[in-house]
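Supplementary Data S3. Sequence and structure tokens for construct A.
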Amino acid sequence: MLPSWLTEDYVQKALGNFYKDNQLRVQKVWAKPATEKGENFVGVMTRIYVDFVQGDGTEQKKSYILKQAVPANAPQAKLFGEYDVYNRELEMYDVVLPKMANILREAGINDKLMAEAVIVDRERTIMILEDLAPLRYTNADRVKQLDMVHTKMVLDMLAKFHAAGMVLNQREPELLSRNYDAHFFSRSKKGYGEVFTGLFRAFIRYVKSKPNLKNRYADKLENIITNLMDYAGRSVDVGEKDLKTLIHGDCWTTNVMYLYDDEGNPTTVLPIDFQFSTLTSPAVDLHYFFSTSLQSDVKQQETELVQYHYYALKRTLEALSYKGYFPSLFEYQLQFEKRRFLSVIIANVFQPIMVYQGSEDCEFVNLYQDTPEGIKFQDSMYEDMEIQRRVDTLLPVLDAKGLLDAH
């Protein structure tokens, strides 16, 4: 069902401007949902199909993606309104990402940085984007997660993204000083505090259900929960000697899309979904990505992966003739380690949602509210044997690093 305002005239005007073709004529528009229930909590995505004739008489049949805010009566609407995620993503597609792509092109780096925006309509808080599916972009399997080849491609992409963000912030600091401070763990916002606290309580419930974990960690985790968002907030703080740039903010398996060659090898990767792009340390993207998206054997090489990203970032900044502070590898590893608390939260309470294969109702409120349906869903997340194995592996490491103590 198309919104009433999305008429053939509206689409025709948008496509005419996008293709710079005043003679373009739309003949037919129809649509169907672009995501399944539970795949995208932040917005509503609709695939629009358009038959049109170009000014030179060429007939075209193309599809596009309409991104809209969740309905005002959705339980999460207020939360996403507080973090201003929709206006932020509109500006990313309309202003920031094109500027970043231009910065990279200046150095001969012509990688595609995003899906092209056909129209960014701030009045209606919507975007129509090119559909990446016909271009053969596809997601990797969120449950199987990423091997080393897929992982390094994302790190190369993030290095270009972070480098372009650093140069843009140097050139136009006022642009990124607006509306790019609201990460999940921002102290000035409250909404995600309730979400993460609810998720963390579910994690503690699981730990208490396992005697060997309960005896060692339950009390420590109970003490953490009162300072949860403060500890996480410190992880996105940036000091004077910290690298600072625009990060993707929500970089995980489902928010990157790959192109593959005929042998099934990935050749290109493209980021999507920029609602949580934030001005902070690039190490925040690395922790988020490592904690949500990597196969276990790949994650074990985390230190080498930080090194890989560091050198890719350094090379890109040199190509961009960046003039500014850049840390040594040792200093950058310390900046990454300083944000290790993020893995306490993300690996233990976010990743189980991201690889969930169960049958319980995955409505947004069920992720964190202690209703009967919510508790049923949350408990079912930890029934996965791989998640249990990861918790068993991760908790001793976090404990040994002092992250489960007051700090």
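Construct B, processed identically:
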Amino acid sequence: MSSAISSSLISLSILFVLQTVNFLTFETEGLFLLTPLIIGTAELILSALAALCVFTRPSRNTAITATVLLIVCTTWTAVGLSNISEEVTPKLYERNVSVEPYSQSDALLPGHGVHILLFAIFSVCLIIHNHKKDLVVFMFASSLISVSVIINTWTNFKGQSLLFLWLAFLTAYVSVRTALEHFAGDIQTNPSDNKTDFDDKKVIRYALNVLSLSPWVFYSTTIIDDTAISFIWPLASGFFLLLHGINGVRRGSIIVSMYSIVDGLFWVSLGGSMYMAVIKGYSEILFLAISIPLTIILLTIGAVSLHLEILLSLEYVFLSGFVLSLTFNHDVSLTVFTWICFVLYMYGYIAVLMKSFSFKIQFPVGQNRFSKLWQNFCKQKIFAENKVDVVNSKNVFESDSMLGFSKYASLENVGYFSNIISILSFVWAPRDTLLLSLPWQLIFGGFIQFVVGFVGFSRGKTFESSVFLTFASFWSVWGSLMSLDLIGTESGISFGVGVSGFLLVGVLFMGMSITVSKTWIGISSCFALFMLTTLLQVLGVSDGFIYQRTAAVLFSLFLFYAFLSSTFNLSFGREVLPLGKPLLQISKVTKYNDQILWASSRRARGVKEIADKLKAGGICGIPTDTVYILVACCHQPKAVERAYKTKKQAEDRPMSVWISNFKQIEAARHEFSSLLWDFLHEIWPSNVSVVVKRGEWVKSLGLGESEKYVGRPDSIALRIPDSTITCHLIDQCGPVTVTSANPTGEGDTTHHLQVLAKLGVKMCDGILCDGPSRENAISTVVDCRDIDNWKLGFFRIGLTPKSTVLGILDKLTEKHATKNGENHMNGTVNTAFEIESNN
């Protein structure tokens, strides 16, 4: 993280050097003045590079620095957009002479004013906390730049080059210092770092929301005459909110990240519409087809958020009022809702900072005020009717928990409501303002749908992923064509071919959805119907637009129910509004979810449940450091026999024994030589199984009559796996017998769903879910029966190469030879057991 911070500061330093050269050239009327397009492009690129540190996972010591850098990067991204617009937009004015010239000073003024306010509050918190003084200096210098920009609105201030030079030197100095400390390994931390639990996720969300709202704040005070000209602030802030939210979902910060994504979608699309309004001279930036469903969705989010935090709920309630005020262009209500939203965001910003720095006086946000009241209501009303336990659940698939097979949380609810906005803006946008719908199609329908689709695929939801990716393709292509008014009856046949392709895909989804859920059957059917009516309109069929709008309404209703279902289920962690069972159950997961124990490996409780199942005589599939295996407790002879008999031709596949520590085979200590005992300590934990001589010590494992199913008559295989989850499980249930979790002759099992698919419920009582295997390769099996003669055999060479094993033996050989005064050839291999291998 230190290197990431250093790289980001270097990018900002280069940006400030370019600004210094540009202003010096401008003030001296030199020949090397950069054009607005060039300097704007450079600002965009460098600020994006500098923001990369925020989108890696910051540690506690770097979260504060990363937050400050992201706010600065957002500001300079907006400045870059403004510079590009200054050169590009006038060329578009030639087509519309009624549009007023682009004023860069008016565009920059709102964001820079809010920028000063944000950094002033942040700096005061750091000074009082006696923390990060270098950041305070940096924020002071950055604020002076914003002050100079504001002054330049009314007069010609010529000192900006010195300010940029100061910032360039400061960022370069801190960057070089951080890099040297990183490489020297002498990074000193402030003692107050250990007392700070900085909530960067919320601070960033509030700061960027305030920046997004700045044009309307300044418009309400009559400082600027038009909000559309300041489109750069909601556009830049919304973009970083989107990336911040998506990165947070990947980090497992589900709640705050979801809100950041919703905010980012709204502000980016709104900023895009504002730019379209600037180009075309529109008097409005929203239309009723978008604002009504968006308002309903925001109110729903506000209602669901009430049990989490009152402040969060109020933000979305009043933001919905802000949306309606924008739509109807009512100045009084717009001013009222603007200031309410601004105060709420600033209040949240200050509250989070004060909590992060542990101030004695803190601002309450109403967190968990309604938790107990709402939980009691859910028990009595909602969950009681659905017969769902609010607290406990035996099946992890009933909740939207992260099972480890994806680094991302679910984004399906975002995909549902984004589709609603895309559909309604596709068919209900006014003909004379079609261009305003383009940002909503590209952001809500295109960008986020692709993200939702790929996240769904990483979570193992292939059907949902395919549908969302198809939606993304349709809205990106056809939504853009419609917004640009390129779809006409004269090209109906050509466009009809494309729509026909989507229609065929929709019919395919209809057939597949019967194995998913009833809600998805409705969504897929409505999508196919919508494609059919769109085809009729494209081909110029009379009244085709009426059929299309009717299908769009039905499509939106099904999506809205799915949005409510996923939002409530995600918020409460249980199924409140069911999606409906599939008409045809072909998935063993849904068919047998009540007949088998599903436990999450990411929770200690899940591991304990599987351990209890094993101690009670069950057999379970578990993850390891290689692939999934089937295990039974050694002290449960009947379970061992049952696990052995799950395999066809089991006599050719003897079971092995896995332990988690050497105390579990302490009885073998007197039967193992010191060389073998030292070798085992050196080789484990690892993916190496060691074959040793069978002895009386095996009886201490508690195998009883099932001892005949483990190993050979003269040998037995042992292993301590290099897996925290597996060893933690064995710690709780004792040594386990192991066999592969697949029928003899089939490939290894590399996913927890494959365990059930290959073995079935009769051959498996529980599965510890951990997603894809860490490795997709076999383990190495070493024969140590003749190790006292300095010989090793290799039954199988897998992940651990032969050279590594022999290197360990060489190390021990030198130690024991010196101790015993003997001289042996190091690493002699028993060729009788050696096999050919490319590994």
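Residues 381-406, 822-839 have pLDDT under 50 and may be disordered. Residues 370-399 form one domain.
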